[in-house]
Amino acid sequence: MSTDTPAQRPSYERDLLAQLTTRWSRRVAVKKDELDLDGHFDPDLPDFPEHLVPVLALPGAEPLDREARQRVLAAAWIAYNAKTTAVENEIILPACRLMLEEHIPVRRDDVSFIALHQTIVDEHFHILMCQNAVGVTKRRRKLGDLAFDPRGWSVVQGLDRAREGLSGFGRDLVEIAFSLAAETTISGFLSALATAEGIQPMNRMTVDMHRRDESGHAVVFRELAGSLYRSLDGSERALFRDALISGLAAFRAADFDPWVAVAAAGDLRFDPGHLAEWASSRPAPRRDTGPLQLLLDDLGIDQSLVHAIPQGG
Question: Model pTM?
Fold first, then answer.
């Protein structure tokens, strides 16, 4: 048994990316047997935690019968996967491809190249996982026509606003900063379902497999974005920091239009204004700033940035 201290071990063994890439085949969802989704579907269990569905807290939702409430919860699960897919497709995957390009000054070696391609494979598989699980839900709950605009989510719209008027390297920096915000926050987004008791086993297990992969992705993005940030000049760093703040705020922003469609699945009729008014009257949810603080430490950015981020609904 080796008695080497960490400092004495070869640099490869102390490289976080190298450790992740070496263990990839043993830890990621894409390398595991696919779930028997129909076998883990219990028609008597809700598809989504009721306390995470804001439309069920609005006046008018109280008298919903069991079947209508079940449809709303199923629609919420479908919306959840639609948002997850939009984040992967519109924000994370484009940034992965950007960081493979020669003009982006991230760490450049075989390990980082492998880590990015493994992440791309993972993210495409996560999208497939979402689509497979949603397919079962739509079929079993008779919601085959329910769909969501991938560009209708606050975070996607936030990226559009942040890169408006930008081109070239500046636009690339904004896109990578937004992806870093995604990988800093997505584990918390997934954990609410991965640990939920009393919901559809199929749904909880699907989300938990995704969540486990994302813990590794957070390391990949911290390592590569850190190498990028340290190579930037002063104005480029300021642009990156501003985009990171915008991205974190966008991920915390409430989505209203999609919840209107979720409510309609149970024949509830609300408009976005009702939801916005309700959200403004509620205290801001507590946020886990631990991953963000770790990221800021890695980048050498002042921790006061945490307090500058708006607390969304």
Answer: 0.88
